[in-house]
Predict the 3D structure of the following.
Amino acid sequence: MAEETQKPEAAAAAPAEEVVVVEKEEEKVEEAAAPVAPEATDTVVEEKQAEVEAVEEAKVEEKEAKVTQSASFKEETNIVGELPDAQKKAFEEFKQLIQEALNKGGFSAPPPPPPAKEKDAKPPVEEKKEEDQPAAAETEEKAPENVETEAPAPVEIKEEEKTPPPAETPAPETVVVVETEVVEKVAAVEDDGAKTVEAIEESVVAVAAPADEKPEETASSSVEPEVVPKDEPKEAEVPPSPPEEVSIWGIPLLADERSDVILLKFLRARDFKVKDAFTMIKNTVIWRKEFGVESLLEEDLGNELEKVVFMHGHDKEGHPVCYNAYGEFQNKELYQNTFGDDEKRSKFLRWRIQFLEKSIRKLDFSPTGISTIVQVNDLKNSPGLGKRELRQATNHALNLLQDNYPEFLAKQVFINVPWWYLAFNKMISPFLTQRTKSKFVFASPAKSADILFRYVAPEQVPVQYGGLSRDGEQEFSDADAATEEIIKPATKHTVEFPITEKCALVWELRVVGWEVNYAAEFVPAAEDAYTVIVSKTRKIGLADETVVSDSFRTGDAGKIILTIDNQTTKKKKLVYRSKAKPYSD
């Protein structure tokens, strides 16, 4: 952290140095206008070169500072009052959109599309209209023969045929039909034009009269049912429906400061674009209802995968740590039981979502609390990309997590990374955002423990990953801090535990990668006392022991000395801790 705080200062100071240099250069340009002595030319050139080099060095330091700053991710504040003004404005707009949606029930799933029968009901209506047109044409062809007598007749027949109950009679339609027939009849008659026009006028008058009467009747009859407003006050008395209640991870969307923390996660996932964030949270709420997340929490999905994905300890900043051990799928039976068919893959997905939901509900969503997780992905003996079923299930799970669980990762640490995965990551790296890449950390098998210890204390790291934490009853717990030291190549390293009173001293240690010699002895403070061998010198290999535990009881003052002899050409990481316990004879 000291390095990270110093580099921004250098980056901030660099521009100031450049300004000073520019001012000096301007002064020298003015001086250059005057004649310069031959002896001074060499010194001026040297000074300019020195200044140019200083500027270049300052620029290089500034670039390095920027790289280190972007390489590490720092979590933003969840206190709304500390947000920049632009983010505050976006946050308030976001809350307003959510409130409006809650008032209108906007977080419900959209209704299903109408059935196919309703869509198919329209074409027959159009076909009937087409069939009616030829019938009208036939009457028009017959009309010229006896225009005077037959003109009104078809109209009356149509009225009789098209007059169902009064409420449904479309009176204006009959008039329109008559007018169209009249126009066509006038065009069809050539010889007796005047007579036919007179006859048609008479027929129009005869037909129009009842047509005018019927609208009046319908109007008068329709006026009577319009008394319905008497019932309207009863409908208005019904109180409006209360706003929809929507919760995510057991917290209502607009309840208190915890709700603000959740809303900020969705806003940050969409770069504070309010509409995009609203679409995301709406889709998440709908997905949770459709997937049945709340009922999923109560399901019993077995414990076959408890060694594949598990929570263990906290990092140095207090984030819970989740471990994913993909090497467990080397077990063919476990692999087949997990990814053998669609049903098993679906069960795996439900188990993974259930595990994540239970882990999230243990987080602290207060503005100053810990609401993110550190994820450690162990790729040792991983089946890799060749397993199609594993790849499909993993991609499906990742898509769901990305879409519905935003900003829950504080750090993604990949350990025991093979060379092919590093090459694959370089290929996809250009497509990742800087924010995403700043959360990723990769470590080869030889560096995995060292990289992991940067973020998680050794006493919190499981023993299989180089730490001291292990299951069962032990002398030490995860709360007992451990010390880290480096053993140089081809050197003997000693550790001393002073003893000032009668006690039982217990200690434990491990060397990452071992392949060293270990010994322990007690040296009394009295000059005439003898050294006591606690543990004889022995070589410990990589597969011999993970953690060495030892103890010594004494009533005399003195010290315990541990000796670790590293005869290899590589430096080693030593982790140890101790404590004194009182005892009686």
